[in-house]
Amino acid sequence: MRSPEKGIKVHTAPTRPGLIVVDSCLGVVAYNGEALQILTYPDQSDKIRHLNTWLTNKIRSDLVGKQLPSKFVDEFRSARRRYLCRSFTVGNGSASSSGLRIVMLERRSNEAVKINEISERFGLTAREQETVQHLLEGLTSKEIAQRMKISPNTVKAFLRLVMVKMNVSTRSGIIGRIVGPGA
Question: For residue 69, what pLDDT is reported?
Fold first, then answer.
């Protein structure tokens, strides 16, 4: 995505889980755009030659356990973001006859943050609390607005109110006040 003001390329975190279908040899059969964005970050997928081979190697090196190559890891890191990694066998419930597995990469929220304590400490309303939770997930104002089904301007208004209550002047100031030292 390009920033309209400066023509700068901006990476936004996927808001839906990344899904990948692999065969019994961990070769990529199919994937959605979110999985592609998560696995290729910070590179641009359209610049990667032989994308399926690249993805297969990435899955084998980063998503599969080192001791048990048949088991996927529980957590995957892409830059500073953490994703839960779950895999499901495609089949009739017992042994998979197809040998296909679905791997789901889902954004993991910061478990160290207890949003209820923060809300109480700073006197946040339920909607301000929800806005802050999405902010902690790394979402942009536009993405937060889509999740909350409100306008981006309303999100900005909620964030301004939170900034006043927390005595900070930026979005990163909100995050710093919550997760920083002495929070």
Answer: 58
Cα(8)–Cα(109) distance, integer angstroms: 27
Mean pLDDT along residues 81-99: 71
Least confident range of 22-26, 119-123, 136-140, 155-159: 136-140
Dihedral Cα 41, 44, 50, 52, nearest 10 deg: 40
Average pLDDT, the chain: 81
Q: Which amino acid is at 168?
A: V
Residues 67 and 121: their CA atoms lie apart, in Å, by: 44
- pTM value surpassing 0.85: no
Length of the chain counted residue by residue: 183
How is the chain split among helix, strand and coil, in percent rounded to 5?
A: 40, 20, 40
Q: Which two tokens stand for residue 95?
A: 């042994």
What does the angle CA 155 – CA 113 – CA 152 come to, to the nearest 5 degrees? 10
How many whole angstroms separate alpha carbon 36 and alpha carbon 43?
A: 10
* 43 touches 70 (CB < 8 A): no
Residue bearing the bigger pLDDT, 12 or 174: 174
